[in-house]
Specification:
The complex is a heterodimer of chains A (about 475) and B (about 650). Chain A has about 475 residues and is an all-alpha fold. In chain A, about 75% of the residues lie in helices and about 5% in strands. A 3-stranded antiparallel beta sheet of chain A has the order 4-3-5. A two-stranded antiparallel sheet of chain A has the order 1-2. In chain A, α6 (about 155-185) runs antiparallel to α8 (about 205-220), α12 runs antiparallel to α13 (about 320-345) and α13 runs antiparallel to α18 (about 445-465). Chain A is globular and about 70 Å long. Chain B is mainly α. Classes of the chains: A mainly alpha (about 475), B mainly alpha (about 650).
Chain lengths: ~475, ~650
């Protein structure tokens, strides 16, 4: 029997898109004040409903739906919930800022919703074509979002670069998928592995196809050497969009990795492992060393993102369940940490404009003790200082690496984490020890303040009970 | 049930300390005093209940919870209640209670009064934690806790530079001891794999004869090494030569503190620790010899310093050093029971002496120089009487508590077969004379002879208020009587019930097994120590009552010896020289050549430069040019495809 409950989150988000677009179409007939409230409220409501649908999944509707298009299991529910929660948080943090720039119109909300929808589709995809569909939905929305501020040249440049490179990556992915389809005759990710095993170890073309898929995924993830777009996009895009780019696509990418590796391409894992470790090590190197000399805060976070992707890929590269759980755990933690850092960037203003340089944070410790404490939480967590949750995430990956027999790589990762600690701690040092030549003020930020505070505190509290989130990830992967 | 009792006893003072420490200003000084005194008083009463249960045969050795697990090592919090810890709890809470009450009068009108009460409650908690521990972690927490509070209280009047300096000195010297203590615990953990006492006791016999290779062909017996390292910690805490230098200076703290922390309880922590570990120490005869020698040396040579000191509190401080030396020597002779017995009686009479001295100081308007006192017996009769009781107990006058413990202790050392016991016995016997001399010198200088204070002070001289004299009387009672009661159970071994090692079969304690307190009392008049003690009192009476000019003449005649004694054998100068000349010199050398050139120059800055170079290279790669990005993407794809072709089993090279 056809059931709509399997796609309930998707339906709510899509309905939200339609409603927002509808409001926008009627802009001339509706009062401005009404729209100003109604559009964000609709978007938030749609995401909240989708989140509730994902959270209250009872396990009964597990399986593959719609002729092998979508898969509903613990993993997809957890990640759909995470994506919806992430999108909700992003909207909370960004509404004020977007309105200040005159960008808080319907298209922003509609595009955030479609991008989220793309993420959700990627997460639940059971079929190569659906997977590609979701990826394009996400990518196209992002291209538009990055350039939503049409007047700003850097934003347009960033969008252009992202679009151009993204198109190449999409082509590469599509080519890899078509090779796989040609080899196996199936689009189903689950059946793919059976067919690949049947072909035996000599299937040279399958390996080449796997490389194409891997490269495309590494690009989406922003892993070195496919990372070039990351710093430019992070810096060029409006901060709320950067926040989006930094968080939700990472969820989608890790979901893709988990789906393709644990069910689709598992026979090839051993070979992936070598390449993945190469990419991960390079990402760690480029991310952490590149961040050292950055003066722009968003660029710093961009390089830091590349470094964190390196850690996540290391978890995947182990090819073990434990490593996969560690990677998933790391991703969720990373999203939480990044949300705090960007949320604070959006909340604080220096010299009447957005914070750009790290030095703009000077004196924050005195002028805004609470927000600087949260920033300290975020930086410590990103650096992996115990007891913050970021520490446990790093530890989980390192332990998985050691268990899988990669001690040298683990040592290298630790060394890179030490280098990383330098630039995170420099932010803390600037906040607390450098004198400010200008007052730092807080934007008018009311309800989101609470969300941001909770988000920041979560880094600490989850660090005190690291097993809670870890247990959830284990449950989602093992199930 | 018993666990609940123990936890209550330990936590009550902590609760009072936290409450008054945080909210003291809000609740006022009256309520602060009531809370802290109530808490410690209740702890005392409960401790008597506990003691009764323990005498009835109850024991407890249980882990309450595991604090954390790290690298396979469990860090437990647990309690061990046996005759030894029950006795210590009772003594600590009783003396603490008396000092709390006394402080109402002594600290009146001091601006830091509330802080003071909070500190001493915190101290009581830390001390109780220390004595009730069943593992080294908790012992160490208590150990550092009492050290911290001691530091805070020595420097209680921190605006006085000498007080701050003394606090710092105590802190630094104790760090030296901690260094050994922590090494000892670490080595022990390495050898036994556990921090629990019970594990150590169980494994100690199997470790006998094992050696630790230190390289350079050096092999050390493990047990002796652990024993000595742990004892280094005890040396600092219990102020034994050569780590004793902080205790005389600690007299900068308020007098109740000197009584509670620097006489009765904290400084005995080292003694307690060794006794607590007695089942282990009996397996380490080498360590025992070291302990014996250090203890007996401290007993005599610290006592000698008491003869030349003129500050009333410093004299008592030196006497504390000497008495601690006695206890340490008893431990070294493996007569642990005798050491603990002396610890208990000493706690009472030394606290009494300090508090009585405090009463004198109060009367003299904070004058501590004995040369400006004299004839005080007419003005302060209660203080006079209690001080006399304390002094007689200290010099081990037959019948007073100190007699039973100290003479038994000396006799036990005499019977011991630990190497070094002969010399130690001689030192301890000589020291009896010294003790009597400095004690009665002080007594006569303060309470007898001509009145040397100025007229203004004399006008205001009067007996201290009842909150000060009541604790004196409270402490005078055990100083008189506790020896009679405890002699047989403690030394005969009836009380311990196996809780302390080497009570039953120990030749050193053999003579006391059949003797009653009466017999031992009567035995005094046939022992040489009695006459040495009388001689000491006699010399003091001659020099300070009959011929007041004589001591100065002696000092002139023996000027060089006198100067050495005044300088405290030069320990302070040696340490100062080492601390301000040698150590910074070595530090400068290592800093210039080791740190700046080798580590900073090559390792740190070298790495940083390398990292920085790669960083700027990565930054330069980021040109911002789209075609370069696209080229990198495609090039990397090609490389990876090539790699896959090469590596795959069916590939080019497969």
């Amino acid at each position: 029997m056809m059931s709509f409950s399997a796609v309930a989150p998707e339906i709510w988000i899509a309905a939200g898109v339609l409603a927002v677009v509808g409001f926008e179409a009627l802009r001339s007939r509706l009062p401005g004040n009404f729209l100003k409230t109604a559009i964000p409220a609709t978007a938030l409501l749609a995401l909240a409903l989708a989140l509730i649908e994902a959270l209250f999944w009872n396990g009964a509707s597990q399986g593959v739906f719609y002729d092998g298009s979508l898969v509903i299991d613990a993993f997809s529910r957890l990640f759909v919930a995470a994506a919806c929660l992430g999108a909700l948080i992003i909207l909370f943090y960004s509404v004020t800022d977007m309105e200040r720039h005159g960008l808080g119109r319907g298209e922003y909300h509609a595009l955030v919703l479609t991008a989220t929808l793309g993420v959700v589709v990627i997460i639940t995809a059971a079929n190569l074509l659906v997977l590609y569909l979701g990826l394009e939905l996400l990518s196209l929305s992002l291209y538009t979002l990055i350039s939503i501020d049409r007047e700003r040249i850097p934003a347009a440049e960033a969008a252009m670069k992202y679009f151009f490179l993204g198109a190449i990556a999409s082509g590469v992915l599509l080519y890899g998928l078509s090779l796989l389809y040609g080899l196996s005759g199936t689009l189903s990710i689950a059946r793919l592995s059976v067919d690949l095993v049947a072909m035996g170890p000599g299937a040279l073309l399958a390996w080449v196809a796997a490389v194409f898929v891997l490269v495309a995924l590494a690009f989406k993830f922003g892993a070195a050497p496919f990372h070039m777009w990351v710093p430019d996009v992070y810096e060029g895009a409006p901060t709320p969009i950067t926040l989006f780019v930094a968080t939700l696509p990472e969820l989608a990418s890790i979901a893709l990795f988990v789906r393709l590796l644990s069910s689709g391409l598992s026979p090839l894992v051993r070979d992936w492992s070598g390449m993945l470790i190469g990419i991960a090590v390079l990402s760690l190197l480029v991310g952490n060393l590149g961040a050292l000399l950055q003066t722009n805060f968003k660029r710093l976070l961009a390089y830091s993102a590349i470094g964190h992707v390196g850690f996540i890929l290391l978890g995947i590269a182990t090819g073990t369940i434990r490593g996969e759980v560690a990677a998933v755990y790391y991703t969720l933690v990373y999203v939480l940490m990044t949300a705090v850092a960007f949320g604070l960037l959006l909340a604080l203003r220096a010299r009447g404009r957005e914070i750009e340089a790290i030095d703009d944070l000077a004196g924050l410790g005195q002028s805004q003790p609470w927000w600087s404490l949260l920033m300290l939480f975020a930086m410590f967590s990103l650096a992996g200082v115990p007891p913050f949750v970021g520490f446990w995430a790093k530890l989980a990956v390192l332990r998985a690496l050691l268990a899988a027999g990669f001690p040298v790589v683990a040592v290298f990762a630790v060394l890179m984490a030490v280098v990383g600690a330098f630039y995170y701690l420099r932010v803390v040092k600037v906040m607390y020890f450098d004198r400010a030549d200008h007052p730092l003020v807080r934007g008018n930020f009311s309800l989101p303040e609470l969300v941001l505070s909770l988000n920041g505190l979560a880094l600490f509290i989850l660090g005190l009970v690291p097993n809670s989130l870890w247990g959830l990830c284990t449950w989602a992967i093992r199930r | 049930m018993m666990m609940g009792l123990v936890v209550t006893i330990v936590l009550l003072p902590l609760a009072a300390a936290v409450l008054t420490g945080l909210a003291g200003r809000a609740i006022g000084r009256r309520l602060t005093q009531a809370l802290t005194i109530g808490a410690v008083g209740l702890s005392w009463v409960l401790s008597l209940l506990l003691l009764e249960q323990v005498i009835g045969g109850a024991r407890l050795d249980r882990i309450l919870y595991t604090w954390m697990v790290s690298g396979g090592v469990r860090f437990p919090i647990g309690f061990l209640i046996d005759p030894l810890s029950a006795l210590m709890i009772s003594v600590v809470t009783f003396v603490s209670f008396a000092v709390h009450v006394y402080s109402i009068g002594y600290m009146r009108d001091d601006p830091g009064e509330i802080r003071f009460f909070s500190y001493i409650s915190l101290f009581t908690f830390a001390m109780l934690l220390l004595v009730t521990a069943n593992n080294f972690l908790q012992l160490f927490i208590g150990w550092e806790g009492v050290g911290l509070v001691s530091y805070l209280l020595i420097g209680f009047w921190f605006e006085k530079p000498s007080a701050s300096a003394a606090a710092l000195k105590a802190f630094l010297v104790n760090r030296v001891g901690d260094c050994g203590f922590v090494l000892g615990i670490a080595l022990l953990l390495h050898e036994t794999g556990s921090l629990n006492y019970s594990a150590l006791f169980a494994q100690a016999p199997t470790l006998v004869g094992q050696t630790l290779r230190l390289g350079f062909g050096l092999h050390l017996p493990v047990l002796d090494l652990i024993g000595i390292l742990l004892f280094v910690g005890a040396m600092a805490k219990s102020a034994q030569i050569p780590l004793h230098v902080w205790l005389p200076d600690s007299m900068e703290g308020p007098t109740p503190i000197s009584a509670l922390i620097h006489a009765a309880t904290m400084v005995t922590a080292g003694i307690f620790m060794v006794a607590r570990l007695s089942p282990f120490y009996v397996e380490a005869p080498g360590a025992l010899s070291v302990i014996l020698v250090i203890g007996s040396l401290s007993a005599l040579f610290m006592g000698l310093l008491g003869i030349v000191a003129t500050d009333i509190k410093r004299v008592i401080a030196y006497s504390t050093l000497s008495q601690l030396g006695y206890m340490t020597a008893a431990l070294g002779a493996s007569a642990f029971a005798a050491g603990i017995f002396h610890l208990v009686t000493h706690a009472f009479f030394k606290a009494l002496l300090f508090l009585a001295a405090g009463s004198v100081i109060l009367g003299m308007h904070h004058e501590q120089d004995m040369r400006k006192m004299g004839g005080l017996r007419r003005y302060m009769p209660i203080t006079y009487a209690t001080f006399l009781i304390g002094s007689l107990a200290l010099v081990a006058f037959p019948g007073f508590s100190g007699y039973f413990s100290k003479d038994a202790l000396i006799e036990a050392v005499g019977h011991s077969r630990i190497p070094g016991a002969g010399t130690a016995y001689l030192l301890l016997v000589l020291s009896v004379f010294v003790t009597a001399l400095y004690t009665f010198r002080m007594f006569f200088m303060v309470f007898h002879g001509e009145e040397r204070m100025d007229a203004k002070t004399r006008e205001h001289l009067h007996e201290s208020p009842w909150v000060v004299t009541l604790p004196l009387v409270l402490l005078a009672i055990p100083s008189l009587g506790v020896g009679w009661i405890l002699f047989h159970p403690l030394l005969g071994g009836g009380y311990w019930g196996g809780g302390l090692a080497n009570v039953a079969g120990n030749p050193a304690l053999a003579p006391f097994r059949k003797e009653s307190a009466w017999q031992f009392f009567l035995g005094a008049f046939t022992s040489p120590t009695f006459y040495l003690m009388l001689a000491g009192i006699g010399v003091a009476a001659y020099g300070y009552l009959l011929r007041p000019r004589w001591p100065a003449a002696v000092a002139d005649r023996l000027a060089s010896v006198y100067r050495i004694l005044l300088a405290g054998y030069g320990f302070d100068r040696l340490y100062l020289w080492f601390g301000t000349r040698v150590s910074p010199g070595m530090g400068r050398f290592l800093w210039r050549h080791g740190d700046e050139q080798a580590i900073d120059g090559l390792a740190v800055n070298g790495t940083a430069h390398g990292v920085g170079r790669i960083g700027s290279w990565v930054r330069r790669m980021q040109t911002g040019l789209l075609y370069q990005y696209a080229f990198t993407l495609v090039a990397a794809l090609v490389v990876l495809v090539f790699w896959a072709l090469v590596r795959s089993p069916g590939g080019i090279l497969g």
